UniProtKB/TrEMBL annotation:
Keywords: ATP-binding, Coiled coil, Helicase, Hydrolase, Nucleotide-binding. Belongs to the DNA2/NAM7 helicase family. Residues 551-562 have a biased composition (Low complexity). Pfam families: AAA_11 (PF13086), AAA_12 (PF13087). SUPFAM superfamilies: P-loop containing nucleoside triphosphate hydrolases. Residues 976-1150 form the DNA2/NAM7 helicase-like C-terminal domain. Transmembrane segments: none annotated. Residues 604-662, 717-751 form a coiled coil. Residues 23-42, 530-567 are annotated as: Disordered. This is Superfamily I DNA helicase. GO terms for molecular function: 5'-3' DNA helicase activity; ATP binding; hydrolase activity. Residues 857-915 form the DNA2/NAM7 helicase helicase domain.
């Protein structure tokens, strides 16, 4: 066990009890809530600016991943274990007992739990049960006696915790090695004794051995075989249970001994068929194992040995991407255009109706996930605000992964070449799948939120998830009906949900594994209809901390299926046995399926090539448009210049003609003068003698002027001729330039015609937009509601391709029916744990290959991950899809990412934060001890924020200075921004307070205006019911409860409904746990049926038509801390508001809440109905005064 603190004095320094001698790197951060929790806290020093250089030094240290892992492990050792608080079912009863309470009789002494020949009982016993808040306070005071929890800590610590837990048989005799003490109690004791958390595991082991001694039982020689426990021994008494509580309580110190807490015992009793008793004993003890610790120990050991992690975990534990290297796809259009290019369009999609394609941001996220991770390994974050289509995105990713594997199958010559040479496994023949086909194609969906897991793995196989245009789609649909029956997945009428195929398996805890195996590969054909909807609750939830506590019952492989009207085989085993009898037929069917897949794939590629060409043409048209405009301007200029030059040349030539005429005139005058003064013989004789006669003198004078004029004209004509020659050369050059530009323009015109034809071809097959200048000039809202470079025809083909891929899988399985029977028999044994130690560790991956081939998607909660995939090592899983990752602590996903080559982290840091039960002072001290940057602390970070920080493509979300005091920005991963759930004002308020108005409303009319959901409610439009509370037991307001009762009564008399006239789904939500509990009591006492009640955390990932948000708190200072906690961040109000699809009714004191951060936006957006407070409590629901008539 890693050290908790190097020394007690250093730990006390970090917690502020002793003055620090010097500052240490890593002790500075942004935990402002922690700083305000205590004046003496060391966290007050965190208010100073962080030491940037120290932080950079930490980030550059090679051993930072190891220090982070050790920090996480020590934190996990400090968690308060949560007890099972699930409601009773037909086979499970949860009893909360107090020795002096009305139900003091221990379950094993009750007649209702008396064993029979057919049934036995197992009791999961939790002792020292108290509110997690109280246990955390005891832990904190065990380290820092004078300290207390802050309001933020109190509100984050929901539920019950326990000091020790173990399993007792039907007589109340404990199974000694099922015991587990709370690790946080031993951590406190270890710190007080040694100042470290060294050897906590050894302490827990020793505590188990001491429990065995107290039970007068010795550990079996095989170590942990609880199933060998007999019915002998002394049943537990109240004295024994209190002794067990006191043993652990003593570890917490004197405060714990003296604490006047409401200590109780919770017993979860499971009725089990005796034939299944052994398996259930193992499952019952399994849930007591500490979640994540084994994985963290494994990773620490690997890091200490300096063995490299896989790419995904290496990036997860690596340094954040520098801000200048991040690309905001919402503002950088060229980047977004690259992401949504038709060349990156996945070849397949989920078969939703083709008229509902992915929109811009969804397209970018899916393309980036597949383009980045499919050819390689790594990790990528996706930011999904409420109602923006996270599940739709994951469905498309899954469809493409399955289709990629089908391409490998289609490359086989015949079905039998799917397998490698057979091997012996657990004494049975097993035929491994070829790595070239199966490698890297397994898909696991996981989350801390059980709703998120079931939403996906129940939605994928449901026929409602398939568009009608793709009927009849079927992939062993008879088997999924059996599985839904076995796992009790029923609709509102208590009937199994109609499924289309075994596309996903909800596994995780032991109960889910067995119920799935029973419906998937069961031999018996018993037919029995469920007795009532009350006994057919959703299959055992695979919830976080109490996850495998639900695995304590199997009820004989769960509920059998209803009577069917046909005689089709109902399990895979029977289907395969039938197929094995008709081997030739299924070989031919495989060839047909292969041919259909390849033909469809070729058609998809053909149409995609049209879109790729159209997109390229659109870009070329954008680029050539400028060139075209430039050439046109040049041509016009050349034309104008040429015309002017030719006009000038013509003028010169006209001038030349005139000069030539003048020259002829001068020549005529000269000739006439010469003729007039023709010399006589005498004149010539005298000229010969050198004398000039008067006649010759007159002749000379007469010829001077015309001779001079002719000379001048000749000179001018010569000059003009030279000018004309030069101008003619220039005109020729200009004419040639004009011709060249004309030719270039004509060639460009031909190119643009070709590009336009390619673009028109894209439009012709139905595409509406391409990432060109015209698209980016559209308003942002229009762009985000649009789809790029896709068409309904191609989307239909892509969905068909996925269905052909599924059919090729089905044909491959049936064509190899004999081998799959043997293989799935071993898989069945692995899931039901009947093979136990017969399977070697290196054999389990081969079994998972087979299951993932038949059932492409498996789901589990993070808490069950390591037990479900025991034996699966680093990079053994192909794809990890983590949903609602904003609710997952950073350390909870480490083991899952370690096992996976590729991880897609989907969530929203602006919704519900992780449940965190370690006092913040303890967290801070541990962080200081390990010298870890605050960015790794689950006090303020989640798996989502850690994934976002290493995702280069994403977006900045600004936080207004109105709430934070200064403009701040948060980096998120690939953003989804088109919201399709809520009407206004819910959408607009959430968009303003959490997302800086980046989201756009997806449900609009043709004019782009919001399209409200047709809905009728007697309470009217969404409103704030303003109640001035006078009767308050902080934080519960009886006046607000009266208003809620009145509202629910009105809805019972006149149910709200939509166009289908079905009663609306109604939630009652409060951000405060005690208020939610009071609302739940009101609903139960008033017998308001169909109303779900809980805290905001309860409803993450869910939606309802009508939501009541009950705020609570006492007026004034008494309730100020709680109100400030609720409105300190937008998260809680954001989630609460966006659960409501059609109507939101806020019940609370507007004077107390209306001016607070974030709540003020809600108050301003809602109509305010002011109601008087009642002075007397109300009786029954029907007697509630008509508050709205007052």
């Amino acid at each position: 066990m890693a050290q908790f603190f190097r020394s007690a004095s250093y730990a006390l320094t970090c917690t502020g009890i002793m003055p620090p001698q010097q500052e240490r790197p890593g002790c500075h951060g942004r935990h402002h809530d922690i700083a305000s929790s205590s004046p003496s806290s060391c966290l007050s020093s965190l208010r100073a600016p962080p030491r940037i250089l120290a932080r950079q030094a930490l980030n550059n240290t090679n051993d930072e991943p190891l220090r982070v892992l050790r920090f996480w492990r020590d934190l996990k050792s400090s968690y308060s274990n949560r007890s099972d608080g699930k409601e009773n079912t037909a086979h499970i009863k949860v009893s909360t007992l107090r020795r002096r309470g009305p139900q003091a009789t221990l379950p094993w002494h009750r007649k209702e739990f008396a064993p029979t020949k057919q049934y036995a009982f197992l009791h999961a016993v939790y002792v020292g049960v108290a509110d997690v808040e109280d246990l955390a306070r005891l832990m904190l005071r065990g380290i820092v006696p004078a300290d207390d929890l802050s309001e933020r800590e109190v509100q984050r610590m929901s539920g019950q915790g326990w000091l020790a837990a173990f399993v007792a048989n039907e007589r109340g005799v404990p199974l000694p090695y099922s015991y587990l003490a709370a690790s946080f109690a031993h951590g406190v004791d270890a710190f007080r004794e040694t100042g470290t958390l060294d050897n906590i595991n050894a302490r827990l082991q020793r505590a188990q051995e001491e429990f065995a001694q107290r039970c007068h039982r010795l550990a079996p020689t095989n170590g942990r075989n609880e199933s060998t426990a007999s019915l002998s021994g002394t049943p537990l008494r109240w004295e024994d249970l209190e002794t067990e509580r006191d043993v652990v309580c003593a570890l917490l110190g004197e405060d714990a001994k003296q604490a006047a807490l409401d200590w109780r015992v919770v017993v979860r009793t499971s009725r089990i068929k005796r034939s299944k008793l052994k398996d259930n004993q193992e499952a019952t003890t399994e849930f007591l194992n500490s979640f994540y610790l084994d994985d963290l120990d494994r990773l620490i050991d690997q890091a200490e040995k300096q063995q490299p992690f896989g790419a995904a975990l290496t990036r997860y534990l690596g340094a954040a991407i520098k801000p200048e290297e991040r690309m905001d796809v919402l503002t950088e259009h060229a980047t977004m255009a690259q992401l949504v290019s038709a060349a990156r369009l996945p070849s397949a999609r989920w078969p939703t109706p083709s008229k509902y394609p992915l929109v811009l941001a969804q397209q970018a996220a899916v393309a980036q996930v597949l383009h980045t991770l499919s050819p390689d390994s790594g990790i990528l974050g996706v930011n999904g605000p409420p109602g923006t289509g996270k599940t739709t995105l994951l469905c498309d990713v899954i469809a493409d992964i399955v289709t990629a594997r089908a391409r490998r199958i289609a490359a086989l010559d015949k079905p039998a070449t799917l397998f490698d040479k057979p091997v012996q496994m657990a004494g049975m023949k097993f035929s491994p799948l070829k790595r070239a086909v199966i490698d890297g194609t397994s898909i696991v969906v996981t989350s801390n939120n059980n709703n998120a897991v079931t939403n996906i793995t129940q939605a994928l196989p449901a026929r409602a998830k398939i568009g009608r245009e793709f009927e009849p789609a079927a992939y062993f649909d008879e088997v999924i009906r059996e599985i839904f029956c076995a796992q009790k997945v029923f609709d509102d009428e208590g009937q199994p949900i109609e499924g289309w195929g075994v596309i996903a398996a909800a596994l995780g805890n032991a109960s889910n594994r067995r119920s799935f195996a029973a419906g998937f590969f069961r031999d018996d054909r018993k037919v029995k209809r469920p007795t009532s909807t009350a006994d057919t609750a959703i299959h055992a939830p695979d919830n976080g901390d109490d996850d495998d506590a639900k695995g304590t019952t199997t009820t004989d492989a769960a509920t059998p299926r209803d009577t069917l009207c046909d005689d089709r085989p109902s399990t895979m085993k029977q289907i395969l046995e039938a197929a094995d009898q008709d081997y030739p037929c299924y070989q031919a069917e495989w060839e047909t399926a292969k041919r259909a897949f390849l033909e469809t794939h070729a058609e998809v590629e053909k149409q995609r090539a049209v879109l790729v060409a159209a997109e390229q043409a659109a870009r070329e048209l954008d680029r050539s448009r400028v060139q075209w405009e430039t050439l046109e301007a040049s041509l016009q200029s050349a034309t104008d210049t040429l015309a002017a030059s030719e006009q000038a040349l013509a003028a010169l030539r006209e001038q030349q003609t005139d000069l030539r005429a003048l020259m002829h005139s001068h020549q005529a005058v000269l000739a006439q003068c010469k003729a007039t003064y023709l010399p006589s013989l005498w004149d010539r004789l005298m000229r010969w003698l050198g004398r000039e006669t008067p006649r010759m003198i007159a002749r000379r004078h007469a010829l001077e002027a015309p001779t001079r004029a002719m000379s001048e004209t000749s000179t001018a004509l010569s000059a003009l001729s030279r000018d004309i020659a030069q101008r003619e050369a220039a005109v020729q050059r200009e004419r040639e330039r004009h011709q060249a530009i004309s030719r270039e323009l004509a060639a460009l015109m031909l190119q643009r015609q070709v590009h336009q034809q390619a673009l028109d071809a894209g439009y012709a097959i139905g595409a509406k937009h391409f990432p060109d200048d015209a698209f980016w000039s559209l308003p942002s809202e229009t762009r985000h509601r649009a789809s790029i470079a896709v068409s309904p025809a191609l989307d239909h083909l892509r969905a068909r391709l996925f269905l052909h891929a599924i059919e090729l899988h089905r044909a491959t399985i049936l064509a190899n029916a004999g081998k799959f029977i043997g293989n799935l028999r071993v898989v069945h044994g692995m899931l039901t744990n009947t093979l136990q130690d017969k399977l070697l560790a290196d054999q389990r991956p081969l079994l998972w290959d087979v299951l993932f081939f038949v059932v492409p998607v498996v789901s589990t909660t993070l808490a069950s991950f390591d037990r479900l995939f025991v034996g699966m090592g680093q990079d053994s899983l192909g794809w990890l899809l983590i949903d609602e990752a904003g609710q997952a602590t950073p350390q909870s996903v480490a083991g899952a990412i370690w096992r996976s080559r590729r991880a897609v982290i989907v969530g929203d840091p602006l919704q519900v934060e992780p449940v965190f039960t370690v006092p913040l002072r303890v967290t801070q001290a541990l962080r200081c001890r390990h010298q870890v940057d605050p960015a790794w602390s689950p006090a303020d970070e989640s798996a989502q924020t850690l994934a976002d920080r290493i995702t280069p493509f994403g977006s900045w979300v600004s936080k207004s200075a109105q709430y934070t005091g200064s403009e701040t920005r948060t980096w998120t991963g690939m953003p989804l921004r088109t919201h399709r759930r809520c009407d206004d004002p819910m959408f607009s308020v959430a968009n303003r307070i959490a997302y800086a108005n980046q989201m756009v409303q997806g449900r609009v009319d043709e004019a782009g205006q919001p399209l409200p959901t047709p809905f009728s409610c007697t309470l009217g439009d969404s409103a704030w019911f303003d109640v001035a509370s006078t009767r308050v037991h902080h934080p519960v307001s009886d006046d607000e409860l009266d208003v809620l009762r009145q509202c629910l009564t009105m809805l019972r008399r006149e149910p709200a409904h939509g166009e289908d006239n079905k009663p609306a789904r109604v939630y009652v939500i409060s951000p405060l746990r005690k208020v939610a509990n009071a609302c739940g009591d009101l609903v139960r006492r008033g017998k308001f049926e169909g109303i779900e009640v809980g805290t905001v955390h309860t409803f993450q990932g869910k939606e309802a038509d009508v939501v009541f948000l009950v705020l609570g708190t006492a007026p004034g200072q008494q309730g100020a801390k709680a109100r400030n906690w609720v409105t300190g961040r937008p998260n809680l109000l954001n989630v609460a508001i966006t659960r409501a699809k059609c109507r939101l009714y806020v019940i609370g004191d507007a004077q107390q809440w209306g001016g607070l951060d974030y709540a003020s936006e809600l108050y301003a957006a809602l109509a305010v109905v002011r109601l008087p407070s009642n002075t007397q409590p109300c009786g029954s629901a029907e007697d509630t005064p008509l508050l709205f008539d007052a």
